[in-house]
Automatic annotation (TrEMBL):
The keyword Transcription regulation applies. InterPro entries: AraC_XylS_family_regulators (IPR050204), Homeodomain-like_sf (IPR009057), HTH_AraC (IPR018060). It comes from the Bacteria. GO terms for molecular function: DNA-binding transcription factor activity; sequence-specific DNA binding. Keywords: DNA-binding, Transcription, Transcription regulation. This is HTH araC/xylS-type domain-containing protein. Pfam families: HTH_18. It comes from Streptomyces roseochromogenus subsp. oscitans DS 12.976. Residues 25-123 form the HTH araC/xylS-type domain.
Length: 134
């Protein structure tokens, strides 16, 4: 079953439940708690008390993705929520979700969801406001 508005079937929040390593959990909590913060690999590894290489190995073995891919997934979900429920401009959504620019947001959306943020917002709103058949 397809989800409306080009929504991704992947959820970083659901993936988080599968992580059983406390260091991985700490990193995931930091990212989901503040997606807009600077989450470069070095700072994530320091917060977990691990080397960048070991953190990468743990992420790949526990979650099947790199820390950078996880950060991008969380930021994408944050942007989706903002696009669905706010009137913020695309530039503001990009800033609040942790993307450096609206162009980066657009590029990541296109890559991950196959749709532009403005189109996502329009499709999501049209599915929410469309009357249900009686």
């Amino acid at each position: 079953m397809a989800r409306p508005g080009g929504q991704s079937q992947f959820s970083a929040r659901l993936t988080a439940k599968r992580a059983d390593d406390s260091a991985v959990r700490r990193v995931m909590d930091a990212v989901t708690g503040d997606p807009a913060a600077d989450h470069d690999l070095g700072s994530l590894a320091r917060s977990a008390g691990l080397s960048t290489r070991h953190l990468g190995r743990l992420f790949r073995s526990r979650l099947g993705m790199t820390p950078g891919q996880y950060v991008e997934a969380v930021r994408t979900e944050a942007a989706q929520v903002l696009l669905e429920g706010s009137g913020h401009s695309i530039e503001e959504v990009a800033r609040l979700a942790g993307f450096g620019s609206s162009e980066t947001l657009r590029r990541v959306f296109q890559h991950r969801l196959g749709i532009a943020p403005t189109t996502y917002r329009a499709r999501f709103r049209s599915t929410v406001t469309a009357p249900s058949p009686s």
